[in-house]
Amino acid sequence: MAAFSPFDVTLWYATAATAPKTEPLEGRVQADVCIVGAGYTGLTTALELARAGVKVVLLERAEAGFGGSGRNAGHCTPTFTHYSLPELRRMLGEPWAERLIERQTRANDRVSSMIRDYQIDCEWVQNGYVMGAPYKGALAGLDKKVETYNAVGARTRFLDRDEVEALTGSPRFHGGWLHEEGGHLNPLGYARGLARAVIQEGGIIHTGSAVIACDRSPTGGWSVKTDNGEVIADKVIFSTGAYTVGGWPKLDRTFKIQRVFVAATQPLDEETRRTVLPKNTTIHDGRGDIYVYKYNAEGRIVASMFPMGRRGRDMAYTRQVMSDRLKWLHPQIKGEIRWEYFWFGELDMQYRTVPRFYSLAPGVVALTGLSGRGVPTGSMLGSILSEWALGKRENELALKLEPLTEAPFYMSFGPALTLRYYRIRDNIAARLSGAPLPPHA
Question: Is 7-73+188-256+351-407 in CATH node 3.50.50.60?
Answer without folding.
Answer: yes
